[in-house]
Amino acid sequence: MLIDIFHDTVCPWCRIGKKHLFDALAQWHQKTVQIRWHPYLLDNTIPACGYEFRSFMQLRKGIQPAQLQQLFDYTQRVGEIAGVKLNFDKISLAVNTTLSHRLIALAPDDIKSNVVEAIYKAYFEEGLNIADVDVLVAIGKAAGMNYTKLQNQLNSDAGLDAVVAESTFARLNGITSVPFFVLDNKIRVDGSHSVEVFLQAFNRASLLELSQKIW
């Protein structure tokens, strides 16, 4: 089964959705799974230096500080239930995520999902600046990538056009929010649904494939 995942690295619901998906896959052993990660830049206008996180989020959501805190508290509780940490108090910067998606694109397929998770952890648990080359190179090195080569790639424009093009392509094809999952190019799951919803989607994809083989 092929699973295409559209996500952004500063989206807490993407991290929750990823956890639900992988928990569902741990329970589902019917066939080999291939995962492809796709960038979805929620706001590519953010400058390299970033913005102060809470001020940016208040403006983006159009809400007051108390309402923003309620939103953070709710999202954090949902994350805890899913088994992921979301420490919004640690986050100081709203960042442009293009560079982090370039790291994911450069990562070999066999470690790509690990790199995605490491980026999520760096941002949502440690409050690190995932728009910083040194932070991302350290993440890549820890995952097994060549430090010097990766540093040179991220300090150049390697992978930049592809990341922007993929994000634009997703929007042009009707994806308006993330996380967004596509199974075998047929079954769509929009949002960070429960493990049960993903298992149901896996079964639908399998039945659809079987029916196509029969006919």
Automatic annotation (TrEMBL):
GO terms for molecular function: oxidoreductase activity. Pfam families: DSBA. InterPro entries: DSBA-like_thioredoxin_dom (IPR001853), Thioredoxin-like_sf (IPR036249). Residues 3-202 form the DSBA-like thioredoxin domain. CDD domains: DsbA_FrnE. PANTHER family: GLUTATHIONE S-TRANSFERASE KAPPA, THIOREDOXIN SUPERFAMILY PROTEIN. This is DsbA family oxidoreductase.
